[in-house]
Amino acid sequence: MAEVIVNNYKEATAILTNRDFAQSLYDESPEIMQDVILTSEGNTHINRRKIEYHLFRKDISRNYEHVDFFKILKPIINEAYTNGSSDLVELSYLVTMNVTADISGIDVPKDFIKTRKLLKLVKIFSEGATLVHSLKDKTIIRNQVLDALEVFDREFYSSSLKRREKILEKFECGEIEEESIPKDILTILLRNKKKLYLSNDIIRREVAFYLQAGSHSTANASTHAFHELYEWIKSHPEDEDIIHNDKFFLQKCVFETLRLHPASPVAWRKAIKPSKILTKKNINEGDHIIIDLWKSNRDISVYGMDATKYNPYREVQKKLPPWGLTFGVGAHACLARVLDGGEVPKANTDMNKHNFGLITCFMKALLDKGAQTTQKNIPQLDDKTERQNWGKYPIIFNKVK
Ligand code: HEM
Fold it and tell me: pLDDT tens digit string along 129-169?
């Protein structure tokens, strides 16, 4: 079995959009990843995706961005603002963990203690999911994942499940209307359990997968987005106004961040059939393909000679994503791309009907409160991972309360 590395945009897209290459990054992590949407292929995957997609339609995402997101964001950001300072890494995790729990169908009381507890469990799930990259003892991690799943079941999942089952029973008896049914992954899977041939274990793993898929990626992207904005304003003070007042421009800034900081630097696929890719490399069945998203997103043939630089004024060719391959592409492309990143606006886009994405909305809320870094307490990268993520990002709020 050969290993093939793909590090340019065109070939990366060719592999990711070809059904002859199957997901393989999570092969060592069945405890947490077996049969979830991201590791399913063929009709099982197509049917699951069709059902779950209903929660991520553009109109639903827009409504979430305009209404539900602010119900979560407001109390968290207001508390930080009242304190006068915060750590943006922590703040981003609090916001995104609550959002992701909401979408996954896990009820989290509004006290932040429970959110932090859930986050701890989800971090263990993620460590279990990315076991292929781990340098730690894999048996220990697998056991930690199994223990975390038990705690998750006891403290979060069972009660969320029971509540939804009761609601669905009431709906079946005609006691409540469709509008009273929660719009989340757990509920949608319970309603389609037979149609999708889902076992209880698969449903629980799918919900646990959603919790990790949404939380780390969005939290890290948010801290990166703020950092890049802040640094840009420092070196381009003339852009401060446009960043504060033009939400379309702010979204362009977020697109650049997403392109330069893909949540996962690589995607993995294994060939299920022999084939050729663009550079005419022969691929045999079973070959292992490492798609370098980090390098593909910096491909100068697509993003220009300054592709490695952050430039919110970048003009990207029509139909090419300004966020690069950060949300993936093809069969397994991120279902929450519009929700988190928004859509690319056209010249005549009405801002009231536009999806800016949750990250842009979060940035706007931080800027409106005068969030800024402090000389005393400098942000630090996370030294526990090789990925370029922030470990500590102290901020203060300088707007008069
Ligand atoms: C900045 C934030 C995010 C980034 C960068 C991101 C990135 C990605 C990428 C690269 C993939 C494809 C992986 C592959 O092809 O191997 C993916 C898939 C997925 N993401 Fe996201 N994601 C983000 C946020 C979210 C959120 C908030 C959710 C849900 C709450 C979510 C749900 C999913 C799901 C369900 C899939 C699997 C789709 C499938 O297999 O059909 N993601 N994401």
Answer: 988 888 889 999 999 999 999 999 999 999 999 999 999 99
β-pair partners for 6 = 291
The HSE-up count of residue 179 (CA atoms within 13 Å, CB side) is: 0
57 and 174 Cβ atoms separated by less than 8 Å: no
Measured CA to CA in angstroms, residue 66 lies from 61, 70, 183, 251, 255 at distances of 9, 7, 16, 15, 20
- Structural tokens at position 157: 């999942």
> Which sequence spans correspond to the domains of the chain?
3-388
Q: What is the value of pTM for the model shown?
A: 0.96
pLDDT band at 280 (very low <50, low <70, confident <90, very high): low
Atom of ligand 1 nearest to the CA of 331: 41
In this structure, CATH architecture of domain 3-388: Orthogonal Bundle (1.10)
Pocket of ligand 1 (CB under 6 A): 23, 37-38, 49, 100, 103, 210, 213-214, 217-218, 221, 263-264, 267, 326-328, 332, 334-336, 340
Mean pLDDT across 14-42? 95
Question: Among candidates 334, 376, 375, which has minimal Cα distance to 357?
Answer: 334
